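I would love for you to help me understand the pair of lines that follows before we discuss the fold together.
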Amino acid sequence: MSDGAATLADLAIDGRQNEDIRRLLDVLDLIATERLRLHGGDEQGAVMRLLMRRLIDGDAAGLPLLRLAKETGIPRETLRRKLGPLLNKRFLVQDEAGRYRIGKAYVVASFASRQAVLAALATL
């Protein structure tokens, strides 16, 4: 009697496809691991992506907490708590005016992660 769970026979794939799926899952695991290492949770990731996009677009001024909360949709106090670990790792820096900006430590760490992910993607 089947409980509705898939079996290997349900996949109907050959050995080559099986290996392709394994490699893709390995790449997805690597991406998830690197994302967790760099950002922690979803809130941190949203802030880092927002600030990195602004930096790439030439805006290195950063954003105050209230503006980050508004643009990400994350409550201000939640965001304040979630940014602490990123500040401690120097992935984020906060200037005298209270604006948050991408830290050099994040640029270095994200470059290493990007290289690892790109190398893994090249194996697909």
In short: The radius of gyration is 19 Å. Strands lie at 92-94, 100-102.
